[in-house]
Amino acid sequence: MTKPRIVVVGAGFGGMAVIKALKGAHADVTLIDRTNHHLFQPLLYQVATAALSPADIATATRALLRHHKNVTVIMGEVMGIDAPGGLVKVANAPDLAFDFLVLATGADYSFFGKERWAPNAPVLKTLDDALAIRERLLGAFEWAESHAGERGISQGLTFVVVGGGPTGVELAGTIAELARSTLARDFRHIDPASARIILFEAGPRLLSAFPKQLSDYARTALEKLGVEVRIESPVEEIDSEGLTTTAERISTANVIWCAGTTARPAARWLGAEEAGNRAIKVEGDCGVPGHANIFALGDVASFDAGGGAVLAGLAPVAKQQGAYVGHLLKARIAGRTAPKPFRYRDRGAMAVIGRSRAIADFGWLRLTGFAAWLTWSLVHLMLLVDFRSRLLVYVNWSWAWFTWGRGARLLTRASPDTYGLARRGGRR
Fold first, then answer.
1. What is the pLDDT of residues 104-127, one digit of tens each?
2. Which CATH number fits domain 115-259+349-419: 3.40.1000.20, 3.50.50.100, 3.30.530.20, 3.20.20.70?
3. Is 170 known to be catalytic?
4. Which CATH number fits domain 5-34+76-108+261-334: 3.30.1360.170, 3.30.565.10, 3.90.660.20, 3.50.50.60?
5. Residue of 135, 142, 170, 201 marked active site
6. Which of 90, 143, 327, 345 is deepest in the core (most CB within 10 A)?
7. Residue-wise burial string across 365-400, b where 16 or more C-beta atoms lie within 10 A, e elsewhere
8. Reported confidence tier of residue 417, pLDDT bands at 50, 70, 90
9. Maximum distance among all Cα pairs of the chain, rounded to whole angstroms
10. pLDDT of residue 223
């Protein structure tokens, strides 16, 4: 009997959960991704701020799936789908035939139609993004040290984060700790603690998905770290010399964009109905309407959880949907009854603000401060995909806790002037 062919697009949380659930299934499974690694995105901001190295939070996909004998891993970029023909179109590679297809392609940041901002406002989605931001941050201090006393130093040491969600809050807090603590003793001609870190949020409060009391705590904690928080401050323009909001103009070359996401173009590949963020509107089993053998999950899927509420683009959602779709496919292949429609189990949400500062909302229990930070740390250690990563992250976190140091502060370019930083009154 010919084995059914299952193609999973995306090696993120959702895609890997599908693969894990399909272990041992009577099927030939192919996993395709643009990179050769699985990335633990919740800690990506720590790579961007020199707390961790890339290998601490990313593991080669082939190594993770070494014992999944029915899985083939392909590194390639999907360019389209021929649904009637059962083919996945891959750039510079042969098409992949499928009997079942799972789309777990994730999301990119959205500039809300202002794509011209992108060259001057890096985002944080990949390891390349994180390393580019790390070079920009550390390079700014190196440049300031070699140009101490010259005009433009304040602009060079002004860092703006746009977006008051978990990523923006975590990044702003960690940049503040990097400047105020880690780098404070290492420069002779500048005071790193004088750096300005400004967080802009268009809405009325930070971390809007959390209860207001936790949101208020996060804002207070950031301000204690020296972060200037601007709420109800939508961005009007970003250029090479700074950022303009409805209320002010900030001169800086260091703007980081953490606001708004849009699904990758899987809906367009299928001609499927899209939600406002371009995600595919899926059915109760995560299936794509009109395509009985195609499923979408995670950030690329818009799943109605009831009452018009759509599941958020969170890692736990993707993991639970991935496990569900994997078991559903396994049941179909074996001729068993399919499971009931997917139902998300909300186990809570957390966000870290800095050293010993975090918030956690478990519904029945809300934590702040050290207790929330400790809970956040333990949960994230356990969620890392392998023991090596857990060990490396634990060692780095322990070192940072006792010494205030960061072990990933390497710049590999020849000169800080090559980092694309606008200086001397906004010009290089």
1. 999 989 898 899 999 999 999 999
2. 3.50.50.100
3. yes
4. 3.50.50.60
5. 170
6. 143
7. ebbbeeebbebbbeebeebbbeeebbebbeebbeeb
8. low
9. 76
10. 97
